[in-house]
Amino acid sequence: MSQANIILNPQSRIPLLKSQLSAPPGPEPQLPISKSHTHPSNSKNEASTSPGSSRSPNDGSVYFIGNATTLIEWHNIRLLTDPNFLHAGDHVHLGPGVTAERLHNPIVDMDGLPAIDSILLSHYHEDHFDRAVEDSLNRQFPIITTPHAKKCLSTKTDPFTSVYAVDFFQNVTLALPATTGDKGNKKTPKIKVTGMPGKHVPPGPLSIANDLLKAVPPTNGWLLELGYENPSSGTEDKFEPGYRVYISGDTLFVDELKQIPEWLRGEKIDLMLVHLGGTTIPGPKAPLVMVTMDGRQGVQLMRLVEPDVTIPIHFDDYSVFLSGLEDFRKEVEAAGLGGKVVYLDRGEEYRFAVREGEA
User: Fold this and answer.
1) What is the pLDDT of residue 359?
2) Where is this region: Disordered (predicted)?
3) Which long-range contacts (CB under 8 A, 24 or more apart) does 185-190 make?
4) CATH number, domain at 258?
5) What is the pLDDT of residues 103-138, one digit of tens each?
6) What is the pLDDT of residues 152-200, one digit of tens each?
7) Residues 6+ apart with CB under 8 A from 255
8) Lower Cβ count inside 10 Å, N or C end of the chain?
């Protein structure tokens, strides 16, 4: 079910930050891209796409900033995921009696980002939407998030006014004005954002207790379908996806995730961004409960949704992470899936091509 259709104008974007509302126009910041990766099957991988090299409108990219913060760009549409820009040594509050220290700096600060079209917020947790970010954001900037997070953001003393709540299997579309495609047809570039299941707390008594105490917020995954609305299409749904990106969000490997391949009905996922870390509460020294996937569960999710390529994120930025990237790497190699994974350091990007309509 579509919740909203957001029409974008990349020539006149809504300012991301309060400080930009009154700032005079200036040159747009450029991301510090240290390396560009392409599909693992490309034998020339990094050498074939030097940072800053030109790309066609159908080329997309994922740029890794740190933790679960990425910048996804296609057709000049830019989405910022889970904005967390605290620096090493800063702390976040994650629930009653639980805090975590940031261990690594993001590769860029918020004021160093190029203009953005929307934020995708998987859930209302400080390691994904820290207080400094919240305080600095323009209240009119579009945010796509969970119903819980919308309630939190829109009922503040200084409320956010452009928040779109998306529950599991609901969607929002972001669209550009129509353009002429490679085949001479009129087409409208769109990104359809669909909420995917996720569960931040393991099932059983802890989940029941959390439903009552509301200590850990509900979370979404996301499916981004990049494609075109083609008026000449012979089908009722004129939208033709050409690339699918699944973002797991802060979930454990739970039964609810089995709904994802069922919902896709045989359609493939081209790219998965998987949140790892084996986040433990209250922390690695007293790991009473794990609330995000570790390396083993990350591989289980790869086998379940069978993405063409997987990129791990959210694995070493906070002191509550018990299972680092090396755990995932070992599980991947043991499963014989090494050729399906691309590892990004902060400041690196992955480039991909979006098909002009399904093959």
Assistant:
1) 40
2) 17-58, 180-199
3) 185/230, 185/232, 186/230, 186/231, 186/232, 187/228, 187/229, 187/230, 187/356, 188/228, 188/229, 189/57, 189/74, 189/75, 189/77, 189/227, 189/228, 190/226, 190/227, 190/228, 190/229, 190/239
4) 3.60.15.10
5) 999 999 999 999 999 999 999 999 999 999 999 999
6) 999 999 999 999 999 999 999 999 877 665 555 678 899 999 999 999 7
7) 203
8) C
pTM of the model: 0.92
Q: Which token pair is 230?
A: 């083609």
pLDDT band at 258 (very low <50, low <70, confident <90, very high): very high
**Chain-wide mean pLDDT for the chain?**
89
Spatial distance between the Cα atoms of 295 and 25, rounded to a whole number of angstroms: 45
Cβ-based neighbours of 160, under 8 Å, separated by 6 or more: 137, 139, 141, 143, 153, 154
Which residue in the block uniquely carries the two structure tokens 């739970």?
254
pLDDT of residue 184: 58
Q: Is the pLDDT of residue 89 over 50?
A: yes
The C-alpha torsion from 328 through 333 and 337 to 338, rounded to 10°, is 90
CA 257 to CA 55: how far, in whole Å? 35
Report the SS3 class of residue 216: coil
Q: Are 36 and 73 in contact (CB under 8 A)?
A: no
Residue 164 lies inside a defined structural domain of this protein:
yes
**Biggest distance spanned by C-alpha atoms of the chain:** 61
- Band the pLDDT of 48: cuts 50, 70, 90: very low
Does residue 91 form part of some domain?
A: yes
Copy the structure tokens of residue 238: 């004129």
Contact in structure between 39 and 341 (CB atoms under 8 Å): no
Work out how many domains the chain is built from and give that number.
Answer: 1
CB 185, CB 230: distance < 8 Å: yes
Residue 268 within a domain: yes
Structure token digits, residue 248: 């797991």
Range of the domain at 130: 2-21+31-353
Residue 14, burial from CB neighbour count under 10 angstroms (0-12, 13-18, 19+):
middle
